[in-house]
TrEMBL record, chain A:
NCBIfam families: PRK05715.1-2, PRK05715.1-3, PRK05715.1-5. Its EC number is 7.1.1.-. InterPro entries: NADH_UbQ_OxRdtase_chain4L/K, NUOK/Mnh_C1-like. The chain crosses the membrane at residues 13-33, 40-61, 67-93. Belongs to the complex I subunit 4L family. This is NADH-quinone oxidoreductase subunit K.
From TrEMBL, chain B:
NDH-1 is composed of 14 different subunits. Subunits NuoA, H, J, K, L, M, N constitute the membrane sector of the complex. It comes from Mucilaginibacter frigoritolerans. The keyword Secreted does not apply. One of its GO terms (molecular function) is quinone binding. GO terms for biological process: ATP synthesis coupled electron transport. Residues 114-407 form the NADH:quinone oxidoreductase/Mrp antiporter transmembrane domain. This is NADH-quinone oxidoreductase subunit N. One of its GO terms (cellular component) is plasma membrane. Keywords: Cell membrane, Membrane, NAD, Quinone, Translocase, Transmembrane, Transmembrane helix, Transport. It is found in: Cell membrane; Endomembrane system; Membrane.
Length: 109, 459
């Protein structure tokens, strides 16, 4: 555990921030340009996981466990969200036989 | 504290009642449970609350007031749900349970003292609402609303979380007091990371409350969801969103207001104009209400822009006035929709001849939403504008007054349709529950408009 912490701290904090920002941006771009509901969903998960990574990094650098506890909360609630989200996607698929969000144009977008 | 516990346990009891086929008992149990929760909430008034659970929650006067207004609005909406859910499915216990779970999230949102609880509260509320938006499983509009709400909600949660993380990285804590101390102790050399975090939190929260330019999901979701759920989303949820917004910014970011006030100022002005101008050319009453809720989000943002001692009070008065008036509008819409099957302005034609009571309460609601004097809406706008003027935001107030004038046009369209357009229509049968809710709300609107004193001095 001690060596792990040292290994993490051997890399400057800025690198973690940069990496997380890049992953987060990939997620945002994915949500904005992809048309498949499942892929959009995965991009959202990517955003949440970049946040988890950053929280863990901050937490190790500060020697403060609250950041890592927050990661657990994010994971638990993301799982709840996945359960509801996939159910909604299945409901859409049953009605339209498609999960392309372009079919969602009955209401003006 | 007991409020939150009761509202969390109540839905589980309701699920059991539904399991043992006690459909008739659901509504009374819900109402009684909520009233008990409200009583416990009010008993916490002025007892010098300290943060509890290692600084996670704080049930101070702010939280009591906003819990009370959200619980009361929920009670009114639950009354309207009599015979509403039965048309959708025979398993109605789940609907009441999910509404109450959402309310539990809202109570957490208005009482948080730690960014963890802010996140958890918002998520409990949102996840319940994703389900509620899609309860009409075979109705395509409802499906679409659920998916759009879900994708946009999850997306905005990502921004909120990234913001929270950056603030944690800069300040080293999630606790509101610790973050405030950090801001106060480093007035000039705060990490740029912290500012980015504040901006991302603004983006996340603006998504949740439906402020432009992050409002684009609102009209679709509000139009597609079942009308009763739309009523819940546009009153209780919006109130809670602003309470959380205000609590966070008052507690943490007030010392660096020079940084975020310009950003929110721009958001406020855009929200006002987009909401009001788009509402002008809507044909559907429900969609018009959705855009009007965007414009009201703009007025509510005034309190955050002009952050001061009276902000909480003005948000409270405004949100109360707006919630009551919206509940009347949505209640009337449910009745008209059941009769004519359409939510266009034309379906209100000639309503005053056959249903003078319904036309009267709807007129009062529209006058209140437009901010005409002697209604609660006017008092709300008055407090908002006074607060902004105290901060010398003269241009903002002038733009808001122009917007208030624009809004009169579309609110009066429905009044004109009811009183001056003739149409052959049968008399609407108004159930007793609806009469009670509509009458009570109309009386409250007028009462607050005439004697604002009894709610304006609370916090």
């Amino acid at each position: 555990m001690e060596t792990l912490t040292h290994n993490i701290q051997a890399i400057p904090l800025n690198h973690y921030i940069l990496l997380s920002s890049i992953i987060f941006s990939i997620g945002v771009i994915g949500v904005l340009i992809r048309r498949n509901a499942i892929v959009i969903f995965m991009s959202v998960e990517l955003m949440l996981n970049s946040v988890n990574l950053l929280l863990a990094a901050f937490s190790v650098y500060r020697g403060d466990a609250t950041g890592q506890v927050f990661v657990f909360f994010i994971m638990a609630l993301a799982a709840a969200e996945v359960a509801v989200g996939l159910a909604i996607i299945v409901m859409i698929y049953r009605n339209t036989n498609s999960i392309d969000i372009n079919v969602l144009n009955r209401l003006k977008w | 504290m007991s409020t939150l516990i009761i509202i969390s346990i109540l839905p589980i009891i309701l699920l059991y009642i539904g399991l043992y086929k006690g459909q008739k008992a659901l509504l009374p149990v819900t109402i009684i449970g909520l009233l008990v929760a409200l009583g416990f909430g009010i008993s916490q008034w002025n007892n010098n609350a300290q943060p509890i659970y290692h600084g996670m929650m704080l049930f101070d006067n702010f939280s009591v007031v906003f819990s009370s207004v959200t619980i009361i609005s929920t009670i009114l909406i639950v009354f309207l749900s009599k015979d509403y859910f039965e048309k959708i499915s025979s398993h109605i216990a789940e609907y009441y349970a999910i509404i109450l779970f959402s309310l539990a999230g809202i109570i957490v949102m208005v009482s948080f003292y730690n960014l963890t609880m802010l996140f958890i509260g918002i998520e409990i509320m949102s996840v319940s609402l994703y389900i509620l938006a899609g309860i009409k499983k075979s109705d395509f509009a409802s499906n679409e609303a659920a998916l759009k709400y879900f994708l946009m909600g999850a997306f905005s949660t990502g921004f909120l979380l990234f913001g929270i993380t950056l603030i944690y990285g800069a300040s080293g804590s999630f606790n509101l007091e610790a973050i405030r101390n950090f801001v106060v102790e480093h007035p000039h050399n705060i990490d740029p990371m912290f500012y980015t975090g504040v901006l991302l939190i603004i983006v996340g929260l603006c998504f949740k409350v439906g402020a432009a330019p992050f409002h684009f999901w609102t009209p679709d979701v509000y139009e597609g969801s079942p009308t009763l759920i739309t009523a819940f989303m546009s009153t209780v949820v919006k109130t809670a969103g602003f309470a959380a917004f205000l609590r966070l910014f008052t507690a943490c970011f007030a010392p660096i207001s020079d940084f975020w006030v310009p950003v929110l100022l721009v958001i406020t002005v855009i929200t006002l104009f987009i909401g009001n101008i788009t509402a002008l050319y809507q044909q559907s009453f429900k969609r018009m209400l959705a855009f009007s809720s965007i414009s009201h989000a703009g007025y509510l943002l005034f309190a955050v822009v002009a952050l001061g001692a009276s902000s909480a009070n003005s948000v409270f008065v405004y949100a109360t006035a707006y919630s009551i008036a919206s509940i009347i509008a949505f209640g009337a819409l449910i009745l008209v929709q059941q009769q004519s099957g359409s939510d266009n302005f034309e379906s209100f034609n000639g309503l005053s001849k056959k249903n003078p009571f319904l036309a009267l309460v709807l007129t009062i609601a529209m006058l209140s939403l437009a901010g005409i004097p002697l209604t609660a809406g006017f008092i709300g706008k008055f407090f908002m504008f006074t607060g902004a003027l105290n901060k010398y935001q003269v241009v903002l107030v002038i733009l808001a007054v122009i917007n208030a004038i624009i809004s009169i046009f579309y609110y009066f369209r429905v009044i004109i349709a009811m009183y001056f357009n003739d149409a052959d229509r049968a008399e609407l049968v108004i159930p007793v529950y609806y009469k009670f809710v509509l009458g009570l709300s109309a009386i409250a609107t007028i009462l607050i408009g005439i004697y604002p004193g009894f709610i304006s001095g609370l916090i």
